[in-house]
Design brief:
This protein is mainly alpha-helical. It has 13 helices and five strands. It folds into two domains: 206 residues, 3-Layer(aba) Sandwich (Rossmann fold), CATH 3.40.50.620; 88 residues, Tyrosyl-Transfer RNA Synthetase (Orthogonal Bundle). The chain is 53% helix and 7% strand. The strands form two sheets. It has a three-stranded parallel beta sheet with strand order 1-2-3. Strands 4-5 form a two-stranded parallel ribbon. The relative contact order is 0.15. Bound molecules: tryptophanyl-5'AMP. The site of tryptophanyl-5'AMP has 26 residues, from strand 1, helix 1 and helix 7.
């Protein structure tokens, strides 16, 4: 808690063009907390460099991710929007928490195992300790609630374990955060391989619908989505493709799965896929428009970054001075 409001924190890596998974599982849900909570939404560029990035692209995507936050409805006056590397306490607390995170715990992280398999020539220490930096992001702001997709659940549980461990050794220092995983959009699957999650780094462009794809591209990708050989538009085991498309449709329309199944009963797969594609493209049209306007005003984005970093810095510093004292660091007196 800072001031009279509880805290919400979440982050998105600027490591690729964001997908409708990022949108439905996370960003779209962020705005709902702005009135009741002090909300921090961070562009986690330090996490992104655990996988090799092109520096110019990383810089561009950092601006783009910030612009997308705003285009998706996050008002910078009501939410603290900032870039992780602008607030050095993330790295500082990340190191300290590394010393309270066990090798065995980090070894069990499924994301580490997946990413090491995908980047076999660059299994760096940062990739391994990624979850303790993520814990630092969250704990630095005394966060109560972390809205994320299902794939971040394991990292979040580790953040809770680290907070509890630290509190047990040194007395109450950190709020122990809870995850907020929405029921519907928490796991959007690949359009080409619907037992895998949709991932922004998927090399198969047809598998991934990006928030900023053109209407034509979105519809084309949905038309090519993998389905199955029977012809029923229902959610069922063995029908992961159709189940995923129905889920995407209900997320964008706020209809129940039963309503959607009734609506499409008897329709052929081709028409169904077209309808889902059009719904998705139309729902994102205003985001794309707003995004284009924001990207044309770099000075505005920079002012948001500066204001966000200043606000985050103030509160991060408070937690750090407590942590530094607890672990036994000396105070520098001028
Ligand atoms: P990242 O950048 O991979 O994803 C950003 C958010 O999008 C969600 N997400 C999905 N949700 C549903 N379906 C999908 N297919 C899908 N793909 C991604 C993710 O769950 C996430 O909420 N480690 C984090 C970034 C991070 C963070 C944090 C998050 C760093 N520090 C502190 C919360 C709190 C990540 O890689 O997200």
């Amino acid at each position: 808690m800072f001031g009279d409001k509880k805290v919400v924190f979440s982050g998105v890596q600027p490591s690729g063009n964001l997908t409708i998974g990022n949108y439905l599982g996370a960003i779209r849900n962020f705005g709902a907390f702005s009135e009741q909570y002090h909300c921090y939404y961070c562009v986690v560029d330090m996490h992104a460099i655990t996988v090799r990035q092109n520096p110019a692209e990383l810089r561009r995507r950092t601006y783009e991710t910030l612009a997308l936050y705003i285009a998706c409805g996050l008002d910078p006056q009501k939410n603290t929007l900032f870039v992780q590397s602008h607030v050095p306490q993330h790295a500082e607390l990340g190191w300290i928490l590394d010393c309270y995170t066990m090798f065995g715990e980090l070894s069990r992280m499924t994301q580490f195992k997946d990413k090491s398999a995908k980047n076999a020539d660059n299994i760096n220490a940062g990739l391994f300790t990624y979850p303790s930096l993520m814990a630092a992001d969250i704990l630095l702001y005394q966060t109560e609630l972390v809205p994320v997709g299902v794939d971040q659940k394991q990292h979040l549980e580790l953040a809770r374990d680290i907070a509890n461990r630290f509190n047990q050794i040194y007395g109450e220092t950190f709020v122990v955060p809870d995850g907020y995983i929405s029921k519907d959009g928490a796991k959007i699957m690949s359009l080409q391989d619907p037992i895998k999650k949709m991932s922004k780094s998927d090399p198969n462009e047809n598998a991934v619908v990006r928030i900023l794809d053109s209407k034509d591209d979105i519809i084309r990708k949905f038309k090519r989505a993998v389905t199955d050989s029977d012809n029923k538009i229902v959610r069922a085991e063995g029908k992961e493709g159709i189940t995923n498309l129905l889920n995407i449709y209900t997320c964008f329309t706020n209809k129940t799965p039963e309503e959607a199944e009734r609506e499409f009963a008897g329709m052929g797969y081709g028409d169904f896929k077209l309808a889902v594609g059009e719904t998705c493209a139309d729902a994102l049209a205003s985001v794309r428009e707003e995004f284009a306007k924001l990207m044309a005003d770099k000075a505005y984005l920079e002012s948001v970054m500066a204001q966000g970093a200043q606000d985050a810095y103030k509160n991060a510093r408070r937690t750090m001075s407590k942590v530094r004292r607890k672990v036994g660091f000396t105070e520098l007196k001028f």
